Amino acid sequence: GAVVSQHPSRVICKSGTSVKIECRSLDFQATTMFWYRQFPKQSLMLMATSNEGSKATYEQGVEKDKFLINHASLTLSTLTVTSAHPEDSSFYICSATGTGHHYGYTFGSGTRLTVV
Amino acid sequence: AQKITQTQPGMFVQEKEAVTLDCTYDTSDPSYGLFWYKQPSSGEMIFLIYQGSYDQQNATEGRYSLNFQKARKSANLVISASQLGDSAMYFCAMSDYDMRFGAGTRLTVKP
User: Which among A60, A92, A98, B2 is placed 20 to 30 Å from A43, CA to CA?
Assistant: First the structure.
């Protein structure tokens, strides 16, 4: 089946630094990538949607200059958390879809970010 | 805009019993997909079952079945013969392009 590899699985960074999270589709072309954030004991909240080769579309309230998304190829999308602060500590997870939108969403395994 | 509602923050079920997790949704798009995911403490999202808005029959996948009532806009998950390993968070989700999630239900299976 389709696989999305997400790295790193855990990262601890100092306040003010930037962190990059990668999601790679291993056996299919990810035309669309969705990025979610999940705080403890809460649901997954959609942050942004990116189509390969296009600028990402951010959800209301998500700072596009803080959460930089790059989807330059059909197999790789990255989320960079810039100037991270403790309130950015969260679980970040990507989901990719290829052809068609209603079926075939493949999730990465998630990244637990802790900003100290 | 999509809206997905899960009204049960937590549910308990006895091992080997069946349990129903509720989900209602709202969308103006006639074409959409409904999903259920299981999320254990590790955080990974485990796909359980899918129902398309035009599917005539309720979806089933092993011990999981989706009770799809389109007119009532509900998509309840039924887990039969609960096992201890079923204890986890369960999320209902809907897609008409992107995928959005309900608040989730924490299921605890008692031995």
Answer: A98
B64 has which bridge partners? B61, B79
Which residues, including other chains, have CB under 8 Å from residue B1's CB and lie 6 or more apart? Answer: none
- Please name which of A7, A1, A10, A6 lies closest in space to residue A95, comparing C-alpha atoms: A6
The model's pLDDT over A16-58, given as tens digits with 9 standing for 90+, comes to 999 999 999 988 888 899 999 999 999 999 999 999 888 999 9
Q: For residue B79, which of B20, B39, B24 has the smallest C-alpha distance?
A: B20
Closest CA relative to residue A81, chosen from A114, A53, A108: A114
Which of B4, B39, B45, B48 best probes binding to A when mutated, by most A CB atoms within 10 angstroms? Answer: B45
Residues 6+ apart with CB under 8 A from B68: B34, B51, B55, B58, B59, B74, B75
**Does the beta-carbon distance from B33 to A103 stay under 8 Å?**
yes
> Given CB atoms, is A91 within the 8 Å cutoff of chain B?
yes
CB pairs under 8 A between A and B: 49
Whole-number Å distance between alpha carbons of A46 and B86: 26
Instruction: Quote the CA–CA distance of A115 and A113 in Å, as a whole number.
Output: 7
CB contact under 8 A, B101 and A43: yes
What does the angle CA A23 – CA B39 – CA A57 come to, to the nearest 5 degrees?
Answer: 40
